[in-house]
Please model this.
Amino acid sequence: MSSFGKVSRSLIRVISYNLRKNRAMKELVELAKTPGLDALCLQECIAAELPAEIGDLHLADATKSNRLGLAVYYRKDRYEQVASQSFELKKSLHDLIFSPTPERLVGAKLVDRETGHELVLASFHAAPLTALNSLRRKQIKAAHELLQQLGNGVPIIMVGDYNYPLFQDGLSDKVAKTGYDLTLSDRRTYTAYKFFRGHFDFVTSQGFTIENVETMPRGSSDHIPILVTAAYGTPVDKDAAA
Model:
């Protein structure tokens, strides 16, 4: 039986937003007021300029060295932070030229004070469209493996800019083989360029039931923020089940 066989109806609500080189930073205070919001995951932010708090959300961790940073915020009154880490992933040509130390993943291990659930929440930014889908698949696979190590087997939600607008059915099949689900939003999240419109921002998860991925109103970024609502399972006691 899967260790996540028992499902709790406890929900977590997470916004993911690519800030377009920090241009949409001013919108975060309003986004943090979203009803029931538990966490905020950012891409293309300037990490050094991030505040420790955005509304009721606390900064768990952010990337340290890359030009376009990532960050994870969480609701401190509900969650306790256990660990966090940023990670480099396989380099694209774009990274070799512009960002020699490409931290494209940041994750935080949290404990839900209300239910006792442990989880890993992560913000991810895949290589740009100048790279091949095969490289992005390797980055996604590596990111999942790194988050499993960070969480030591707890459920995982990884949201962000996957830069994968085409052939998503194939990607879904690939991640399913490693125990993950891929969930798209209800509408396209990127419409800036005629030939590259589609779902760029979505979620991969393990040990969660993704109930809804809502595309939010457009802001000043070329990406549209998404709001993920998920229910996480109650891990079965392995010793009791043996």
